[in-house]
Amino acid sequence: MNKHFLLLLLLISFAGFGQRYEFDTYTEYQFLKTEKADAEKTFEFSNSKDNSYILSVLDKGKQVTLTFLHASGQKAILKMDKVRFFEEEDLIVNCSSTEKQDLTSAKNAVVSFDFQKLNDTIIKKDTLQHYVIKTVDKKAAAEIGERHFIIQKSTDFHLPNVTPGTIPYFCWASGKDLPSGLFRQTYIVKDRESIEKMVLVKYEKLRKILVLERGCQY
Questions:
Q1: 20-78 per-position pLDDT tens digit
Q2: Residue 165 and residue 51: Cα distance in Å, rounded?
Q3: pTM value?
Q4: Predicted confidence band at 12 (pLDDT cuts at 50, 70, 90)?
């Protein structure tokens, strides 16, 4: 049977099965929950032209934990064999692994947050743009902390890879200034300590498709 015909049948099957999301960029990060914690390896699959969804992959040895997030509130979590995950280009997620989050509070919080451009920072001889998002509510600032974004050079082909459904994402979506580009580093500063720090290891073009089963009841 002709290869192109087989591909057409596959795409028709996926279209009938459910919602289809395509990723074209793979990034690998080191994640440190606190300054004293051991580094974990985490991966992200994203779409350079549509940052309303993302697939985060946490390395758990022989297994990986997958978390799909969409700015609409769609969420899916599942575990699978690591080798199988990286070998398969197409993933199908059934309803038992999905849920719907209420993102109303994050959307409403946009009025209380702003991005600010800081002085450029230098990492390994690279001069990089540095942005921070913080609340304008001074009483809440100490409790919330502030999230920093350091943007990797020459990655403006990719919309900001902020996590969909979060306050930074909705701030960007509302038109508040944050340049395109993958993050070389992102972290929260709270009580003079850096937490939830992600450090870019590498990125590359890599295609993957995720399909959510049709008709899931949230």
A1: 999 999 999 999 999 888 999 999 999 999 999 999 999 888 999 999 999 999 999 99
A2: 10
A3: 0.87
A4: very low
The amino acid occupying position 51 is: N
Q: Say which residue the tokens 């001069």 belong to.
A: 127
Residue 74: name the closest of 161, 13, 164 by CA: 164
Question: What distance in Å separates the CA atoms of residue 196 and residue 119, rounded to the nearest whole number?
Answer: 22
- Say if CB 167 and CB 55 are below 8 A apart: no
Q: Of 46, 203, 186, nearest to 129 (Cα)?
A: 186
How far, CA to CA in Å, does 93 sit from each of 58, 66, 121, 132?
17, 10, 41, 35
- The reported pLDDT for the residue numbered 143 is 78
Taken in order 191, 103, 64, 86, the sign of the CA dihedral is negative
What one-character-per-residue DSSP string does 107-158 give?
Answer: HHGGGGEEEEEEEEEEETTEEEEEEEEEES-HHHHHHH-EEEEEEPTT-TTS
- Max distance between CA atoms of the chain, in angstroms, equals 67
Q: CA–CA separation, 71 vs 46, rounded Å?
A: 13
Which residue has tokens 């590359």? 204
Angle at 77 between CA 107 and CA 196, to 5 degrees: 60
Task: Give the whole-angstrom CA distance, residue 74 versus residue 69.
Answer: 6
